[in-house]
C-alpha cells in the first residue's frame, strides 16, 4: 500500500485517474435527515476515491447536527435550514453546500393541482380549513407538519411566512417519510417534504403555477427552497474531513449533489 | 479441637472474595439505576430551579400549548392525552387479555392452548415500530371512515394500538398467575358443586389477583412508555386537550422522541422534564397498585 | 334398622395413564356410618376416595372401569357431576379455605347454587358453623379473612363449608394429618356428631384414629382392598395375614 | 339458569380469545403481505447502501469458452434484477457486462455479470494499492473517469475493448439488503448480553443467597422494579448524555450496548432471582448437609438448577435487544454499515425498520425487516422452549 | 462398655421469630445407638434434629439459647459449621438427590472437601453404596441421573451420600415416610447395620417404627421433651401420663 499516513492534503486530486495521493482517517458526520441522501452519496464517493477513509453519517436531525458538531461528537454537522442566532453564538464555521426545494404534497387522489404561497400560509395557520376553498372537494383539510426543530419545518415556515403560528390542529409527523406515508394514506392531507423524497405515492403541487423541480429552484421561480448547511469546528477537522469538504464543494461533489436531487451551490 | 474455625484457609478467602464479587455486581446494578434516576431528574428539574432564567413549573404542568419557538412549553394536554390513552388501552386490553388467559389456562383443549400461547407471546416480540406501521396502515385508515374529522389519527387509534400492544403482557402474566393458583382452591370449589365458570370467576381469578395486577402494571408501563407505535397514530398536535375519542393526542413519550434530535438548551431540558413526569407517573402507578395488592391480601 | 349401602363399588379399576392405581375394588359404604380407609402410603386410598365424587375427572389421563353407584345410580353414567358434588362433599388433607372471609367461604357453595337471599344465607352460615363446632370461635370475625384462622379452625371451616351444602356424604382425606392433637380431637368429636346426619368416609394414616372413630374399615395395599369389615373385626381378628402385619406394625 | 349464564360467559371468553388471535393474524398478515415481496437472497446478503470503489488493473487477453446459456445464467438473476441486454464477454478484461433492470428501484444499470477465472479484474487494486478485486454483480459506473450512464452496451464494450494497459473502473456494489443490520444486531446482542448478563446474574445471586432481607434488598428491588417500567426513550436520553457525550464514546455500538445493558439489568436480575428462588430448598439443605460451603453450593447446585430459568431470561433479553429502537436511535446512530470497531455506529434491524418507516416512508422494506425480526423472535422462542424442556427432562 | 454421650443438650430453647418452638430441652444422645424422636405433628422433632448440625442457621429469624455439645464442644460456639456438617450427616424426609448422576451425587460431598483423585472417589462411591445396600441395584447405572431411581432407591442414595462423608452421626428426618413398605423395611435393615459405625438419630411418625428400630426414644409434645428413655421403657412403662396417652393412641 502507499497510503499517505498523516500527510497533508495539499490538493484535491479527485477525478483524475492515476497517481492519486489519498488521505486516510475517519469522518463522523451527522445531523439533518433531509441531507442524508446527499451526504451519504458524497461520503461514499469520497471513500471510494480515498479507500483508507471510513465515513459514516447519522441522520439525527438538524439541531442535533449543530449541537453535536459543537460537542465534538460529529466532526461535521449538517442542518437543512439557516443557522439560528443562538447557534451562531457557538462559533462554528458554516458552509452552504447545497440548496433544496421543499415540495408541497397532497394525496394523488386530490383534485387540487396548484397552490399559492398565500394560501399555504392560510392553510398552515388554520385560516383555510376546507379543500373547496382551493377548488377541491368539500372536505376538511388535514394539515401535516414536521416536528418542532426540524430544518424542513423551519425553512418551510420561514419561506411561507407563518413562523410560529402553526395551527394547533396540525398533525405532526416525524421525518419526511412519515409525512409521506401520512399523506399517502389519506386523500385530505397536505404536507411538505424535501425534493429528494418525492415519489409516486404522493403528488407534488405546483406553487403559484411553478412545478417543483430543481431547475425551477435554480431559476428562482419556485419559491419554497432552503439551504443545506454544514457546520464544524475548524480544529476538530482531521485531514480526511478537510479533504472531504473540499471534495463536496468541488465540481465532483456538486455533481453528486445534483444527482441526488439537491441543487448545487455553484 | 478440630471443629475450630480457621479463617485463613484458601477456601475461606475464596468464599469471601466471591461474596464481594457478587456484592459488587449488585452495586453496579443499583448504581446504574440510581444514576439514571438522578440524571433524568437533574436535567429535568434544572429549568425550574430558582436562580436560573428557566421556566415556571406551574406553566409547564398546566400549559395547554407546546410551541418551543414561542417559548411555550405546556404539557397538561399531553398528560391528559397520555392518561386517556393509557386508561382506554387498559379498559380494552386488560379484560380481553384476561379472558384470553382464562381461555388458554382453563378452557382450551391442551393442543389449542399450546398453539395460542406461543402465538400470543410472538405478539410481544414484534418491534413496536411495526405496530405503528400497522396502526397507520390499517387502524387509522379504518377509523378515518367513521371519524367526524377527515383523518383517523386520534385518541381512539392510540387506544387501540396500545391495547393491542399490552395484550401479550397481560395474557402471559395472567395465564402464569392463573396457573399458579394452588389446585386446592379449584378442587375445593368444584367439590362444593360449583361449575367450572363459577370456580374461575369466584375463586381462581381472585386468588390470582396479585399476579394479574402485576401483569397490568407491566402493561400500563408498556402503554405509558410506548413511543414508536403511538407516534404514528396519535397525531401529536401542538395544543389542545382531547375532548372526544376522535381528537388527536400527543403522548408524553412521543413528545420526547419527536423533538429530542432537534432540541437544544432549555427546550431539551424541558424534554427531560417531560421524562421526569413520565417517571413519576410510573412510580405513582407502581406504588398505588402495590398498595392495592397488599391491602387486598392482608 | 338394617344398614343401607350408600355407595356400592364393583370391580373398579383406575388407571393413571398406564399405571393401574386401583385394582378390582369391591366395596360397600354404609349409610350414616363412618368408614375409614387405611393402608400404607401410595396404596390408593385417596384415589378411591376421589372416585366417589368424581374429583379424579380433573386429572389428565385418568381412565376408569367398573361401577360406582350412589343410591343405586351409577355416578359414572350420564349424570350431572355438579349435582353429584353437591350431594357428596369433600374435605381435604390440607385445610384449603378460599382467600376470602369466613362468611363468604361458607356461603360460597350455596351462592353457587343460586341462593342470594341474605337471611337464608345468614342462617345457613350460622347453622353450618355450629354443626362444625366453630360458631363460638368465629362468630365475631365472620367478615375477616379465613386465612387468619389457625390450622384446626381452618379445617373445621372447610367441614362447615361442606356441611353448608347439606350433602348426604362427606369425604375426608386425612383431615387431621396437618393438625395438632387438640385440633385433631376436636375434629374427631365433630365427626362423631356429624355421622348422625351424614355418611362419612375418612382416609387416615393413623390406625389409632381409625380405631377410635370409624364403624367400618377398609384396608388397602398396592391398589387393592385387602379386607373390609366392621372396625373392631379388622383390628382384633383380621382375616388376611397382610392386614394383621400392618395392624401390628410390621410395616408402614 | 346457571347453565345459560355459564354459556354466555364462556362465549365472551372465547370471543376475547378470537379477538386476540385475530389481531395477531391481522398484524402478521399485514407485515408479511407488505414485506414478503421485498425478500430475496440479495435482501439478506447485500449491504444496505451501495458502496463505490475505484479499482484499476492491467488489461490482458483472457480467452473464455463460456457458453451463451451460462452467460445468461448468473447469480444476480435470483435477486432483484432482470436482464435487459444480454451480457457480452470482453477478452480485454476477462469478464462480461450486460444491462440489467433493478426491479425495485425501476432503473437500469450496467452490471459486470461474469468474471473469468484468471481475469485481471480479480486482481484489481484500489487507489492505495490494496487489492480488492472486482466481483460478479458489481455495477459499472465509470471507465477511466468517464461515465457510462448514457452509453449503449455496444459503446461501452467498444471502449473497454480498445483500452489497453491500465484500466480504472468505478464499480458499485449493490445495496438494498440488510446484511449490515443483521451483523449489527448480532454485535449488539453479544455486547449487551456480555455486559448485562454477568452483572445481572451475579447481582441476583447476591440478592437471593447473600443479602439479608431488609431495607437494602427492598430498596434494590424497588429500584429495579420501577426501572423496568421506565420507557426506554428515557434510557436513550441518559445514554446519549452520559456515554455518547460525557464519556465521548460517540454514537456507537458501544454506547448503544451499554445503554441496552442498563435496560436489561432489571429484567435479568428479576428473572434470575425468581429462578434461584425456585430451586428447591431441599437441594440447598442436602448440599449444606454434606458439608459443602456456600460458594460450592451456589456453583455446583443452585446455579445449574436455576440455569433453565436464567437462560430463558437471557433469551427474553435478546428479544428485547432485537425489538428496541427508541434508545438505540439516540445512542448507536443510524448508519447501516457493518461497524468496524466498538466506536462506530450501526443500526440494528429494528432501528433500520424504524428509520425506513420514518424517514423514507418505505413501509414495504420496513415490513420485510419486520419479517426477519419476527422469524428471529420465533426461533428464539423455540430455543427457549427447548431449553426448558431439555432441563425439565433432566429433572424428572 | 459404658454408653458414651455423643450429643449433650442442655436447656435448649429455640424461637422462630417470637414463636418458641423448643422449650427447655434437655437430652443426651448416646454414641452408636439409634435414638428415635416421636411425637405428634408440629411438636418440634424436626426442629431439634436440625439443631444438631445447625441446619436451622439457614432459616431466617431463628434464635437459640442453651447448649448443644458434640463430643463436649459447644456447636453453637465459634466453630466451623462446614466441618460440623461433615461430621454430622443428614437424610431428609423426601429423598432429595441432586439432579446429577448417581456417581456425582455420592462424590459431591468428598469433592467439596477437595478430593479430586478418581481412584479414591471410585472407591468411596462403591463403599458408600455398598453400605447403603444400593450397590447391586445401581452399579450398572452409576452415570445415569439419580432422579430416575425409585423413591426408595433415591432415599438409600441419600443415605449413601451422607455415609460417603464418613460422618460420626447421621440425622434422619422421617426417612421412610414417603416410601412404600418394602423400601421402608430395606431402610430399616440398613439402619440396623449402620448403627455399628454411626450414631443415628431418627425422627419418625410411626410408633411401630420407633419400637422396631430404636434403642432410645424421646417423646415430644408442643416443643417439650416429655420423656426420654430406652425404647422398651417408653413403650411399656411410660412415666408420664401424656406419653402413655400418645402411645396407646388416645391422640395423634
Ligand atoms: N395424578 C397422578 N398421576 C399418576 N399417578 C398418581 C397420581 N396420583 C396418584 N398417583 C399414584 O397412584 C398411587 C395411589 O396414590 P394415592 O394418592 O391414592 O395414595 P394414598 O393411599 O392416598 O397415599 P398417601 O397416604 O400418601 O396419601 C400412588 O402410587 C401414586 O403415586
Ligand atoms: N421456618 C419456620 N418458621 C416458623 N415456624 C416454624 C418453622 N418451622 C417450623 N415451625 C413451627 O415450629 C413447630 C415445630 O415444627 P417442626 O417442624 O419441628 O415439627 P415436627 O415435630 O417435625 O412436625 P412434623 O411431624 O409435622 O414434621 C411447628 O409449630 C411449626 O409450625
Ligand atoms: Mg392420599
Ligand atoms: Mg418434621
Ligand atoms: O431532519 P431535518 O432535515 O428536517 O432537520
From TrEMBL, chain B:
InterPro entries, sorted: MetI-like, MetI-like_sf, Phosphate_PstC, Phosphate_Transport_Permease
Top-level taxon of the source organism: Bacteria
Domain ABC transmembrane type-1 residues, every copy: 79-289
A GO BP annotation: phosphate ion transport
Location in or out of the cell: Cell membrane
Family of this protein: Belongs to the binding-protein-dependent transport system permease family. CysTW subfamily.
Function text: Part of the binding-protein-dependent transport system for phosphate; probably responsible for the translocation of the substrate across the membrane.
A cellular component term, taken from the record's GO annotations: plasma membrane
Entry keyword Cytoplasm: no
Ranges annotated as spanning the membrane: 20-42, 75-108, 120-143, 155-178, 199-224, 270-289
Organism (species): Alkalibaculum bacchi
UniProt key word Cytoplasm: no
Protein name in the entry: Phosphate transport system permease protein
Keyword entries, A-Z: Cell membrane, Membrane, Phosphate transport, Transmembrane, Transmembrane helix, Transport
Entry membrane topology: Multi-pass membrane protein
Coiled-coil regions, chain positions: none
One Gene Ontology molecular-function label: phosphate transmembrane transporter activity
Automatic annotation (TrEMBL), chains C, E:
GO molecular function terms noted in the UniProt entry: ATP binding; ATP hydrolysis activity; phosphate transmembrane transporter activity
GO terms under biological process: phosphate ion transmembrane transport
Entries under CDD domains matching the protein: ABC_PstB_phosphate_transporter
Primary residence: membrane
Described function: Part of the ABC transporter complex PstSACB involved in phosphate import. Responsible for energy coupling to the transport system.
Domain ABC transporter: 7-247
Localization terms from the record: Cell inner membrane
Keyword annotations: ATP-binding, Cell membrane, Membrane, Nucleotide-binding, Phosphate transport, Translocase, Transport
Record-linked Pfam families: ABC_tran (PF00005)
Membrane spanning stretches: none
Gene3D superfamilies assigned to the protein according to its UniProt record, in alphabetical order: P-loop containing nucleotide triphosphate hydrolases
Listed name of the protein: Phosphate ABC transporter ATP-binding protein (PhoT family)
Source species: Alkalibaculum bacchi
Topological category with respect to the lipid bilayer: Peripheral membrane protein
GO CC annotations, alphabetized: plasma membrane
InterPro entries found in the cross-reference section: AAA+_ATPase, ABC_transporter-like_ATP-bd, ABC_transporter-like_CS, P-loop_NTPase, PstB-like
Top-level taxon: Bacteria
TrEMBL record, chain D:
Keyword annotations of the record: Cell membrane, Membrane, Transmembrane, Transmembrane helix, Transport
Biological processes, Gene Ontology terms: phosphate ion transmembrane transport
Domain ABC transmembrane type-1: start-end pairs: 182-384
Transmembrane segments: 12-32, 186-208, 229-247, 253-269, 301-322, 363-384
Gene Ontology MF annotations: phosphate transmembrane transporter activity
Membrane topology: Multi-pass membrane protein
Domain of life: Bacteria
Residue ranges occupied by any PDZ domain in the UniProt entry: 95-175
GO cellular component, one term: plasma membrane
One Pfam family in the UniProt entry: BPD_transp_1
Family: Belongs to the binding-protein-dependent transport system permease family. CysTW subfamily.
Protein's recorded name: Phosphate transport system permease protein PstA
Annotated organism of origin: Alkalibaculum bacchi
Amino acid at each position: 500500500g502507499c497510503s499517505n499516513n498523516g500527510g497533508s492534503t495539499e490538493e484535491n486530486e479527485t477525478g483524475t485517474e492515476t497517481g492519486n495521493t489519498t488521505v486516510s482517517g475517519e469522518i463522523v458526520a451527522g445531523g439533518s435527515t433531509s441531507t442524508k441522501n446527499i451526504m451519504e452519496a458524497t461520503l461514499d464517493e469520497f471513500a471510494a476515491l480515498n479507500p483508507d477513509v471510513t465515513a459514516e453519517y447519522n441522520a439525527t436531525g438538524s439541531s442535533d447536527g449543530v449541537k453535536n458538531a459543537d460537542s465534538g461528537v460529529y466532526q461535521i454537522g449538517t442542518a437543512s435550514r439557516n443557522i439560528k442566532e443562538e447557534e451562531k453564538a457557538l462559533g462554528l464555521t458554516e458552509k452552504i453546500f447545497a440548496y433544496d426545494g421543499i415540495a408541497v404534497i397532497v394525496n394523488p387522489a386530490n383534485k387540487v393541482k396548484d397552490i399559492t404561497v398565500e394560501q399555504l400560509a392560510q392553510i398552515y395557520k388554520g385560516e383555510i380549513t376546507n379543500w373547496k376553498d382551493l377548488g377541491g372537494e368539500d372536505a376538511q383539510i388535514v394539515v401535516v407538519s414536521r416536528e418542532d426543530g426540524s430544518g424542513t419545518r423551519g425553512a418551510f415556515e420561514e419561506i411561507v411566512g407563518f413562523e410560529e403560528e402553526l395551527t394547533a390542529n396540525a398533525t405532526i409527523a416525524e421525518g419526511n417519510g412519515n409525512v409521506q406515508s401520512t399523506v399517502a394514506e389519506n386523500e385530505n392531507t397536505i404536507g411538505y417534504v424535501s425534493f429528494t423524497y418525492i415519489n409516486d405515492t404522493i403528488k407534488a403541487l405546483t406553487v403559484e403555477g411553478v412545478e417543483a423541480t430543481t431547475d425551477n429552484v435554480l431559476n428562482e421561480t419556485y419559491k419554497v427552497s432552503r439551504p443545506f448547511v454544514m457546520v464544524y469546528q475548524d480544529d476538530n477537522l482531521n485531514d480526511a474531513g478537510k479533504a472531504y469538504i473540499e471534495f463536496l464543494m468541488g465540481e465532483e461533489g456538486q455533481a453528486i449533489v445534483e444527482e441526488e436531487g439537491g441543487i448545487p451551490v455553484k | 479441637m478440630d471443629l475450630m474455625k480457621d479463617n485463613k484457609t484458601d477456601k475461606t478467602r475464596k468464599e469471601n472474595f466471591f461474596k464481594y464479587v457478587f456484592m459488587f455486581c449488585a452495586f453496579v446494578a443499583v448504581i446504574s439505576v440510581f444514576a439514571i434516576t438522578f440524571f433524568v431528574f437533574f436535567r429535568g428539574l434544572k429549568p425550574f430551579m430558582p436562580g436560573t432564567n428557566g421556566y415556571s413549573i406551574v406553566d409547564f404542568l398546566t400549559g395547554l400549548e407546546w410551541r418551543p419557538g414561542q417559548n411555550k412549553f405546556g404539557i397538561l394536554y399531553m398528560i391528559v392525552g397520555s392518561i386517556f390513552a393509557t386508561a382506554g388501552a387498559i379498559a380494552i386490553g386488560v379484560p380481553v387479555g384476561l379472558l384470553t388467559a382464562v381461555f388458554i389456562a382453563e378452557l382450551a383443549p391442551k393442543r389449542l392452548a399450546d398453539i395460542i400461547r406461543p402465538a400470543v407471546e410472538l405478539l410481544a416480540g414484534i418491534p413496536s415500530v411495526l405496530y405503528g406501521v400497522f396502526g397507520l396502515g390499517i387502524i387509522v385508515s379504518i377509523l378515518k371512515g367513521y371519524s367526524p374529522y377527515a383523518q383517523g389519527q386520534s385518541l381512539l387509534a392510540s387506544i387501540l394500538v396500545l391495547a393491542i400492544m399490552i395484550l401479550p403482557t397481560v395474557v402471559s402474566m395472567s395465564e402464569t398467575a392463573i396457573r399458579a393458583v394452588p389446585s386446592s382452591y379449584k378442587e375445593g370449589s368444584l367439590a362444593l358443586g360449583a361449575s367450572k365458570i363459577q370456580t374461575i370467576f369466584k375463586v381462581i381469578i381472585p386468588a390470582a389477583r396479585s399476579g394479574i395486577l402485576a401483569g397490568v402494571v407491566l402493561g400500563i408501563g408498556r402503554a405509558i412508555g410506548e413511543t414508536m407505535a403511538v407516534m404514528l397514530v396519535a397525531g401529536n398536535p401542538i395544543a389542545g386537550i382531547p375532548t372526544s375519542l376522535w381528537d388527536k393526542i400527543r403522548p408524553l413519550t412521543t413528545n420526547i422522541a419527536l423533538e429530542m434530535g432537534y432540541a437544544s438548551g432549555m427546550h431539551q431540558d424541558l424534554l427531560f422534564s417531560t421524562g421526569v413526569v413520565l417517571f413519576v407517573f410510573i412510580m405513582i402507578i407502581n406504588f398505588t397498585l402495590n398498595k392495592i395488592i397488599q391491602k387486598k391480601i392482608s | 334398622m338394617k344398614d343401607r349401602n350408600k355407595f356400592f363399588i364393583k370391580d373398579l379399576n383406575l388407571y393413571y395413564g398406564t399405571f393401574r392405581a386401583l385394582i378390582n375394588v369391591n366395596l360397600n359404604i354404609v349409610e350414616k356410618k363412618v368408614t375409614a380407609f387405611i393402608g400404607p402410603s401410595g396404596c390408593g386410598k385417596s384415589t378411591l376416595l376421589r372416585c366417589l365424587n368424581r374429583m379424579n375427572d380433573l386429572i389428565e389421563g385418568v381412565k376408569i372401569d367398573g361401577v360406582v353407584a350412589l343410591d343405586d345410580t351409577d355416578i359414572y353414567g350420564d349424570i350431572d357431576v355438579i349435582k353429584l358434588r353437591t350431594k357428596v362433599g369433600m374435605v381435604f388433607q390440607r385445610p384449603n379455605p378460599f382467600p376470602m372471609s369466613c362468611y363468604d367461604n361458607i356461603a360460597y357453595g350455596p351462592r353457587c347454587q343460586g341462593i342470594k337471599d341474605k337471611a337464608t344465607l345468614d342462617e345457613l352460615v350460622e347453622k353450618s358453623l355450629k354443626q362444625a363446632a366453630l360458631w363460638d370461635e368465629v362468630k365475631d370475625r365472620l367478615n375477616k379473612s379465613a386465612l387468619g384462622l389457625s390450622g384446626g379452625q381452618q379445617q373445621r371451616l372447610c367441614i362447615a363449608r361442606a356441611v353448608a351444602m347439606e350433602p348426604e356424604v362427606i369425604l375426608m382425606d386425612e383431615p387431621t394429618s396437618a393438625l395438632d392433637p387438640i385440633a385433631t380431637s376436636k375434629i374427631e368429636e365433630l365427626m362423631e356428631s356429624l355421622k348422625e346426619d351424614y355418611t362419612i368416609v375418612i382416609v387416615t394414616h393413623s390406625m389409632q384414629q381409625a380405631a377410635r372413630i370409624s364403624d367400618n374399615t377398609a384396608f388397602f395395599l398396592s391398589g387393592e382392598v385387602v379386607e373390609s369389615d366392621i372396625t373392631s373385626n379388622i383390628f382384633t381378628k383380621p382375616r388376611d395375614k397382610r392386614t394383621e402385619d400392618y395392624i401390628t406394625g410390621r410395616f408402614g | 339458569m346457571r347453565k345459560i349464564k355459564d354459556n354466555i360467559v364462556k362465549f365472551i371468553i372465547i370471543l376475547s380469545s378470537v379477538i386476540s388471535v385475530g389481531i395477531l393474524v391481522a398484524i402478521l398478515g399485514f407485515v408479511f403481505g407488505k414485506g414478503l415481496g421485498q425478500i430475496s437472497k440479495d435482501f439478506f446478503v447485500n449491504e444496505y447502501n451501495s458502496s463505490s470503489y475505484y479499482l484499476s488493473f492491467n488489461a490482458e487477453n483472457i480467452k473464455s469458452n463460456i457458453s451463451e446459456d451460462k452467460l445468461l445464467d448468473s447469480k444476480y438473476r435470483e435477486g432483484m434484477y432482470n436482464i435487459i441486454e444480454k451480457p457480452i464477454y470482453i477478452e480485454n478484461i476477462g469478464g462480461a457486462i450486460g444491462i440489467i433492470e433493478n426491479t425495485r428501484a425501476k432503473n437500469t444499470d450496467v452490471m459486470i455479470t461474469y468474471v473469468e477465472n484468471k481475469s485481471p479484474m480479480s486482481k484489481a487494486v484500489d487507489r492505495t494499492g490494496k487489492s480488492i478485486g472486482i466481483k460478479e454483480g458489481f455495477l459499472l459506473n465509470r471507465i477511466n473517469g468517464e461515465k457510462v450512464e448514457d452509453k449503449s452496451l455496444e459503446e461501452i464494450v467498444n471502449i473497454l475493448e480498445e483500452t489497453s494497459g491500465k484500466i480504472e473502473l468505478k464499480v458499485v456494489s449493490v445495496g438494498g439488503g440488510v446484511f449490515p443490520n443483521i451483523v449489527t444486531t448480532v454485535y449488539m446482542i453479544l455486547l449487551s448480553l456480555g455486559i448485562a448478563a454477568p452483572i445481572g446474574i451475579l447481582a441476583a445471586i447476591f440478592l437471593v443467597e447473600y443479602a439479608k432481607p431488609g431495607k437494602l434488598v427492598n430498596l434494590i428491588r424497588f429500584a429495579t422494579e420501577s426501572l423496568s417500567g421506565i420507557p426506554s426513550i428515557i434510557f436513550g436520553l441518559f445514554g446519549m448524555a452520559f456515554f455518547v457525550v460525557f464519556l465521548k464514546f460517540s454514537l456507537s455500538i458501544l454506547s448503544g450496548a451499554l445503554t441496552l445493558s442498563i435496560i436489561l439489568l432489571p429484567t435479568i436480575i428479576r428473572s434470575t432471582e425468581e429462578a434461584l428462588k425456585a430451586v428447591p430448598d431441599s437441594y440447598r439443605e442436602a448440599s449444606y448437609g454434606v458439608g459443602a460451603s456456600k460458594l460450592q453450593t451456589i456453583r455446583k447446585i443452585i446455579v445449574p438448577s436455576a440455569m433453565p430459568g436464567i437462560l430463558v431470561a437471557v433469551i427474553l433479553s435478546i428479544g428485547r435487544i432485537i425489538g428496541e429502537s427508541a434508545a438505540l436511535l439516540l445512542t448507536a446512530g443510524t448508519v447501516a454499515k457493518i461497524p468496524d470497531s466498538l466506536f462506530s455506529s450501526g443500526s440494528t434491524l429494528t432501528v433500520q425498520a424504524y428509520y425506513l418507516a420514518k424517514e423514507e416512508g418505505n413501509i414495504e422494506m420496513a415490513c420485510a425487516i419486520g419479517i426477519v425480526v419476527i422469524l428471529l423472535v420465533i426461533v428464539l422462542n423455540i430455543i427457549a422452549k427447548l431449553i426448558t424442556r431439555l432441563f425439565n427432562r433432566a429433572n424428572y
